[in-house]
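Form P-L/3: holo structure prediction, ligand magnesium ion.
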Amino acid sequence: MIEIRHLTKRYGRTVAVDDLSFRVRPGHVTGFLGPNGAGKSTTMRVLLGLDAPTSGEALIDGRRYATFRRPLHRVGALLDAGAVHGGRTAHDHLLCLAHTNGIGRARVAQVLEQVGLAGVARKRVQGFSLGMKQRLGIAAALLGDPAVLLFDEPVNGLDPDGVRWIRQLMRRLAAEGRTVLLSSHLMSEMALTAERIVVVGRGRLVADTTVAELTAGHASLEEAYLALTGSAVEFGAAR
Ligand SMILES: Nc1ncnc2c1ncn2[C@@H]1O[C@H](COP(=O)(O)OP(=O)(O)OP(=O)(O)O)[C@@H](O)[C@H]1O
Ligand SMILES: [Mg+2]
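OUTPUT (holo model):
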């Protein structure tokens, strides 16, 4: 489970996350929505210990990320697919990560197969397309077979086949009993993937509900989302 408790994160005068609280439970995909700059990536970075909270806390299974000795076994994440050493091969990139968490070669081969990169495993990452880098990032997230997964816009750059693959993968991971938090701006895709939705605007919680509830009375999730975030003056969403 993911638990965000009264989380605030400021960068100088910018309040990226503002007293945000919500929980993400296992068993279904939870979509993380909000306008550009709403604080989604910041929340995920704090969860992963890549940024320190100004106040409040972000917990995985009741603990801060920094307290895990082998974190890849607890939480997997794809935040920035571009953040890979281009000179390394896909295989070596994953093997380096695996080593730091006591994971063996066989698992590296397994995740490369799972994301469809087995055929280019020995190629340098600098020659990879954006979609291939996204797949590599997903392979890294899966390495430790974690119960909690965070994906920040994993669909970016993927072809239609890849988009469908991600949808099915997310749903399968959740059905296996994992906690899956997924951010995306593609509402039609989110409607097909997620069961619950957390919406943030200017770092604050705007909605924490089911897709069905949010969409009720609207033609689509996109219409419902726009109606919600369109009332910018009410909650101060950055638009
Ligand atoms: N390292 C940083 N230094 C300064 N400001 C930052 C930093 N990271 C994020 N911010 C600011 O915090 C706010 C929230 O940004 P964040 O990236 O979390 O939004 P987001 O919801 O992920 O947006 P998007 O949908 O565009 O990815 C923005 O105003 C952003 O400019
Ligand atoms: Mg972001």
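COMMENT: The radius of gyration is 18 Å.
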